[in-house]
Design brief:
491 residues, alpha/beta, 10-stranded mixed β-sheet
């Protein structure tokens, strides 16, 4: 049986007081604080599909999420105001960006309204009567989750799912589904101001997959041991009749097998894995390989570039096989997967410049993305434009790693990280120092402060035949939309 949450290591230290008001047995009216976030918007969509009255508020009401919600008749109030909770909803979902003094979160607490975090809500309302398949890991979890959903659907299964990204082929990030599996992207970030435990500890996994394990989220985890402990607790939730898929290419991931009573299988590029790939070869923008699953083998044409995406595909294949999907159906499904938006998403080809948008922000993900595109387009010059925006990427402890992450690029434009009011200047990344390291390794690099200022320089620098790789976990000042437009105007 899964371990109770309060039995996990230092669980009491990761919880903060809130009213002990259980959610109602019958929920008809839900209010989400921070409804325009990727996960919260998807959760609102699930409630809407389930037939509930859904409303919410946000201080960042803009497309595409605002449009998505409006098309479904979901009411969104711009800004935060206690009046948004009048009349009182049956349930208030408190996003993890809320602080105890947030105007709506505070009144929900003071008025003793039933409230839950995002992961509690997902678990309580959508996972209890399903078979959760949870995909976790420092990198690759969004693409792997999308791949798994695609493989199940390709096999005729109708799973429920919630992904922290949008699938290119269907323009979906969630669905209730009608069959038993419910596929969830398991995020290790904290749940709410009143529950600092990782979200994935709420998801009741019956099967789980871990793609990678490297230190991340330095703003909430003390060190590598603390971060690794979260994943150890996560795999410890699996029941003895459950299943754990691990990327066997990574020793830190393989070591998680010692922390579960579930059955364990590995996947990866190395032949010692239960599911592995052989004969990798670049194709037009992707990779081909032979998928080995025990005594079975299938040839695969993957549309996604990069060895890391082959690993993602193998992980999804392993869980899909455990769900009863045949190897031949898996191979056909992998070949038809169009990818995830903002994961090496092609934004256009103006003036024969291939503009690619990616969510990469951790140094390992940045390096893998640059290498993958370089391999996929060996005859094109690769210009990398990177914004260190996340709380982890803005920290000085990753300066050396970023300095070595761009070796396979031909030119780099590095944005100075945004400064926030509570930053410790001594702990923040020095963009000029990173640029010096990159230049010292032979790659021309420029630092810029503002997207408006750099856009003309990028337009001048990019030449027909180039790849322009944009990497940020935020909107990047609209650069993914503005750069193709600027290049088209310059033709």
């Amino acid at each position: 049986m899964p371990r109770p949450l309060d039995a996990l290591p230092d669980a009491s230290l990761r919880q903060f007081p809130r009213p002990d008001v259980p959610p109602p047995d019958q929920t008809e009216d839900v209010h989400l604080i921070g409804i325009c976030g990727t996960g919260m918007g998807a959760l609102a969509g699930l409630f809407h599909e389930a037939g509930l009255n859904v409303r919410g508020s946000d201080d960042g009401v803009y497309p595409p999420m605002s449009t998505h919600l409006a098309e479904r008749g979901i009411s969104v109030q711009e800004g935060y105001d206690p009046a948004h909770l009048d009349p009182a909803p049956d349930l208030t979902v408190v996003g993890n960006t809320c602080t105890p003094t947030h105007p709506e979160a505070a009144v929900a607490r003071e008025e003793r309204l039933p409230q839950q975090s995002f992961p509690e809500t997902l678990s309580h309302h959508f996972l209890r009567d399903r078979r959760p398949l949870v995909v976790a890991g420092t990198h690759g979890k969004t693409t792997t989750t999308g791949l798994l959903v695609h493989l199940l659907r390709h096999a005729g299964v109708d799973p429920g799912f919630l992904i922290g990204g949008v699938m290119e082929d269907t323009d979906q990030s969630y669905a209730l589904g009608t069959d038993a599996p419910f596929v969830v992207e398991g995020d290790e970030y904290d749940s709410a101001y009143f529950d600092k435990r990782p979200k994935f500890l709420h998801y009741r996994p019956q099967s789980a997959l871990v793609t990678s394990l490297e230190f991340d989220h330095a703003d909430i985890f003390v060190d590598r041991d603390d971060y690794r402990g979260a994943f150890e607790a996560f795999v410890g939730l699996l029941p003895s009749d459950g299943h754990l898929a691990l990327c066997g290419d990574a020793p830190a991931v393989r070591a998680l097998a010692d922390h579960t009573s579930a059955s364990v299988h590995t996947y990866g590029l190395a032949p010692h894995n239960d599911v592995h790939a052989e004969g990798l070869a670049p194709t037009d923008g992707g990779l081909s390989f032979t998928l080995r699953m025990g005594s079975r083998s299938e040839d695969v044409q993957l549309l996604l570039p990069g060895r890391h995406n082959v690993q993602n595909a193998l992980g999804a294949a392993l869980l899909a096989r455990r769900e009863g999907v045949s190897p031949s159906t898996i191979a056909a499904g992998l070949a038809s997967f169009g990818g995830m938006k903002r994961r090496q998403q092609v934004r256009g080809r103006p003036n024969d410049v291939l503009v690619v948008d990616d969510f990469a922000h951790h140094p390992t993900a940045v390096e893998a993305t640059v290498q993958g595109l370089n391999t996929a387009h060996p005859d094109r010059r690769l210009v990398a434009i990177f914004e260190p925006r996340s709380n982890t990427s803005r920290r000085a402890r990753f300066e050396d790693a970023y300095g070595a992450a761009f070796d396979t690029a031909d030119r780099v434009f590095l944005k100075a990280p945004p400064v926030r009011h509570n930053d410790d200047p001594d702990a923040m990344l020095n963009a000029a120092a990173v640029a010096r390291t990159i230049r010292g390794r032979g790659v021309p690099t420029e630092v810029f402060e503002d997207v408006d200022d750099v856009l003309p320089d990028l337009t001048d620098a990019l030449q027909p035949g180039d790849v322009a790789l944009l990497m940020s976990n935020g909107s990047f000042g609209g650069l993914p939309e503005r750069l193709p437009e600027a290049l088209a105007e310059a033709e």
